[in-house]
Amino acid sequence: MTWPCTLSGLQGIVQRLISRWRGEQLVAAGRGLVGQTPVMRQLRAEIEQVAPSDATVLILGESGTGKEVVARMIHRLSNRADKPFVPVNCGAIPAELLESELFGHEKGAFTGAISARAGRFELAEGGTLFLDEIGDMPLPMQVKILRVLQERTFERVGGRHTFTADVRIVAATHRDLEVHIQEGSFRQDLYYRLNVFPLETQPLRVLCEDIPEIVRALTQRFALAGRPVAQLTDGALAALSALPWPGNVRELGNVIERLGILYPDQVVDIAQLPEKIRMQLPADWQMPDMPAPTVTRPPEPLSHHGAKREEVDPRDMFAAGRSNVDQSVGIRLPIDEQELAQCQCVLPEMDFDLKNQLEAIERVRRTTLVEKLRKYQMSA
Predict the structure, then answer these.
(1) How many Å apart are CA 299 and CA 110, to the nearest integer?
(2) pLDDT tens, residue by residue, 90-146
(3) Which H or E run includes 164?
(4) Which domains does the chain have, with CATH numbers?
(5) 231-232 and 162-164 as β-strands: parallel, antiparallel, unpaired?
(6) Confidence band of 346 (pLDDT split at 50, 70, 90)
(7) Are 346 and 369 in contact (CB under 8 A)?
(8) Does the pLDDT of residue 259 top 60, yes or no?
(9) What's the distance, Cα to Cα, between the start and end of the chain in Å?
(10) Phi and psi dihedrals of 173, rounded to 5?
(11) pTM reported for the whole predicted model
C-alpha cells in the first residue's frame, strides 16, 4: 500500500481482508461436520449456501445427529458471526417458564420476579437464536413465536415496551412436524414460517462409511480436552462401523470416552470392545481384509498447550482444531518415543537457543518442553 492512501485503495484492502476472513471462517466451520459420504458433502454444501442469507432454517434429524453443530456452523458462516449465538432447548424448559425465558420479564411480573431480566431474544440481539426441539413447544408459545417471526417485535412478560427482534432464527426438531400438524399439536402457519430452508442431519446407520473418521475426530477432541484416549485398531473401527447406533454420535462418543477410561493410551482391538457392543454385531459379520494393522492416532501430547480437562459434547464431531495435528492413521509409537521424536523435531526449529526462541514456538509450552528435555536428558 502506498501512502498517502486513496479511498479506492483502502476499499480494496478492506475487501481483501474480508475475503481472507471469509475463507478462514469457511475452513474453520467446515471442521464441524466430518465425513466424506455424498450426504455429508451435500449437507456441508447446503450450509454454505444458506449461511450468508438471513433465511430462517429448520434442521430435522434424529437425536444425537449434530443438529446444534449445524446451527453453529450456519451462524459462524453468516454475516452475524461476530454477534451472539444463543441456544435454548424448548423441550427442557417448563411450559410456564418458557415465555419468560425467551422474552424476559419485568420486575414484579410474577411471584419471584424480584428484578427485570432479559430473555433469549434480547441476548441474541444481532446474532442467531437457536430454538432446539421446537416440536416440543406448547401451542400457546407457538402463537407468540409466530408473531415474532411475522412482526419482528416482542414484549417482556409484564411489560409494555415493545422490543425489536433483530435475530436470525434457526430451529431444530427430531419430531415429524407434519404428523404433529395433523394431530393438532403443532401450528401449520408456524411450520411454514420455520421451513424456509430445511436441512436434514443423517443417523449413523446411514453414515457407516464415515464412522472411522468420526471416531478419529472424537478421539482427537477428547485428547485435546485432556481426557484419556484409547487407540483403536482398524478391526475395532470396522466393528463399530457395522453397528446401527440408535443413539447416533452421542452414543458413539460415550463408547469412545469409556474405552479411553478403561484403556488409556492402549491399543483396543475387537476383543476389548464392550461385550454389549460385540453382541450387536450381525451374525454374518466378518472383518474386512486389512493391508496392515493400524490404529487411531490422537494428537501428539505436546500439541495441545497443556489443555485442561473440560466438558466435551460428542455431537460436535469436531476434527482437531489445530493445523499441526496429524489426522492420518498409522502405526502408533509408544508415548515415550513420540515425545522424544517431537523434542528432537522442535529443537532444530529453536536454533538451539532455548531461552530466546522457545516463546516463539506456538505449539510447545516452555515448561512442557523443559520437562521433556530433562526426562530424555537432552540439552538445547
Answers:
(1) 52
(2) 999 998 899 999 999 999 888 888 899 999 999 999 999 999 999 999 999 999 999
(3) strand 162-164
(4) 7-106+117-202 (3.40.50.300), 205-279 (1.10.8.60)
(5) unpaired
(6) very low
(7) yes
(8) yes
(9) 41
(10) -160, 150
(11) 0.69
Q: Report the candidate in 282, 283, 295 with the shortest Cα–Cα distance to residue 235.
A: 295
What per-residue confidence (pLDDT) applies to 312? 55
- Look at the block and give the residue holding cell 449456501: 49
What's the 3-state SS for 16-41?
HHHHHHHHHHHHHHHCCCCCCCHHHH
- Grid cell 449437507 — which residue? 43
Strand ranges (DSSP E) for 174-297?
197-200, 231-232, 267-268
User: For residue 10, how far is the Cα from the chain centroid?
Assistant: 36
Q: How far apart are CA 316 and CA 70, in angstroms?
A: 9
- Unique residue bearing C-alpha cell 522442535: 346
Report the b/e string of 241-260 with b at 16+ CB within 10 A: bbbebebbbbbbbebbbebb
